């Protein structure tokens, strides 16, 4: 059982998953810091209010806190936009560092070559 556990842990997929989780958590911290430290203060400067979380609606004796839902949607879009910008910058930087592939034209076979191939295949089939 210990041997099987060692094989399981040593698999590339498990290690890649662990690295991906750690990198994802670190990347989440970067995006959250970007949203909380840069984007949200800009929104506060423009609108005067940072969130709508405290908005509620009273229906009878029930209090519907729709502001929390709206704030979650706003946070989702802000984080999505920030993430898109960060990934776009990373893709642009990595694309610039890659050498451009050389354009080598692919030579398509001619009709004569196709016919010769068919002739050879028919000859092989006739010999069998």
From TrEMBL:
SUPFAM superfamilies for this protein: Gated mechanosensitive channel
Its membrane topology: Multi-pass membrane protein
Residues that span the membrane, as ranges: 21-46, 66-87
One of the record's GO cellular component terms: plasma membrane
Phosphoprotein as UniProt keyword: no
Pfam families reported for this sequence: MscL (PF01741)
UniProt keywords, alphabetically: Cell membrane, Ion channel, Ion transport, Membrane, Transmembrane, Transmembrane helix, Transport
GO molecular function: mechanosensitive monoatomic ion channel activity
Coiled coil residues, start to end: none
Origin superkingdom: Bacteria
Subcellular location(s) per record: Cell membrane; Membrane
Family, per entry: Belongs to the MscL family.
HAMAP family: MscL (MF_00115)
Functional summary from the UniProt entry: Channel that opens in response to stretch forces in the membrane lipid bilayer. May participate in the regulation of osmotic pressure changes within the cell.
Subunit structure: Homopentamer.
The protein, known as: Large-conductance mechanosensitive channel
Organism: Marinilactibacillus piezotolerans
UniProt gene name: mscL
